[in-house]
Amino acid sequence: MRLTAENTAIVLDSTADLPDAAERFPNWRVVPLHVRFGDETFRDGVDLGPDAFYERLRASPAPPATAQPSPGEFLDCYRALDGYERILSLHVSARVSGTFASAETAAEEIGGGRVRVVDTETASASIGMLALAIQRRLGRGTSDEELDGLAERYKRERGLLFTVETLEYLLRGGRIGKARALAGTLLNVKPILSIEDGEVVPVKRVRGDARALAELVDGLDAATEDGPELRLAIAHAAAPERAADLERRVRERRPNAELELVVSLGAVIGTHAGPGTVAVFWYRDDARGLDD
């Protein structure tokens, strides 16, 4: 079967931080996760956008709780896409969320192999970058086999680095992974973190915001070469000035790369990362959308 943008849909969850995905591409959809403040529950990116979320987060006496979509919510989304022969459903790391499992349950209900669910082993703009790479291939026609190969190569080769204002949010949300070793040692020190095999891992510690941003760009510099095939993204949590500073540094260091996305971390990722977080993501993809 030849897959195209006309016969293949892409479904993301809201941790991809692309609430306007369906406006970007008519074959894209987003299934939101949930965030709960006390007795109030909101759909991430639908009922509660980033600005309103961070305002609530700062004022809340207790941290919000997050929850994955139910299989029924995915099922409703998949059934609404009945005009598409294939659905590719790309989701946040299964090691930190049950979202992938919910999507798999719904896909099994649909049956016939029509829905292919992918554990991206990552989060935020990194999910969106994989979706964009898939969309490029759909634009010229592709196959299940090529997209399977792309997804596996993406998991191996994509890179990301981020820094948080404090480890408090990762700790209390239980999403800190191997970076737990840094807890309690970070007075006036900024952690540089990454995600490996779907888990947050420590990279190093530096002093001060400026040094942290410089370290993110140095990490990008060490891992990549400039060129139009280099795809980049930036994400931030209520830190537009830090994100703008990071973007300036990235553009200076990689002037020929394509900055595909600059996104705000939504309520679910923001719950666990916390305000002040900034991140840079990268992936090398041939401009023609062809795999090696």
Classify the oligomer. single chain
The CATH topology of the largest domain is given as: Rossmann fold
SSE sequence, one letter per element: EHEEEHEHEHEHHEHEEHEHEHE
Helix content: 25-40%
By CATH reckoning, the class of the largest domain would read Alpha Beta
Describe it for me?
It is a single chain. This protein is of the alpha/beta class. The chain folds into 2 domains: 8-156, Rossmann fold (3-Layer(aba) Sandwich); 157-284, 2-Layer Sandwich (Hypothetical Protein Tm841, Chain: A,domain 3), CATH 3.30.1180.10. The chain is 37% helix and 25% strand. The protein is built from 10 helices and 13 strands. The protein has helices at 21-24, 50-59, 71-80, 99-110, 125-140, 144-157, 168-172, 209-223, 240-253, 267-273, and strands at residues 8-13, 28-31, 34-37, 40-43, 65-67, 86-91, 115-119, 159-163, 190-196, 199-206, 230-236, 258-264, 278-284. Helix 5 packs antiparallel against helix 6 and helix 8 packs parallel to helix 9. The longest helix is centred in the middle third of the chain and has 16 residues, at 125-140. The radius of gyration is 18 Å and the shape is globular. 48% of the residues are buried.
In brief:
With 292 residues, the chain is of the alpha/beta class. The protein contains ten helices and 13 strands. It has two domains: 149 residues, Rossmann fold, CATH 3.40.50; 128 residues, 2-Layer Sandwich (Hypothetical Protein Tm841, Chain: A,domain 3).
Key attributes of the depicted protein:
292 residues, alpha/beta, Rossmann fold, 2 domains
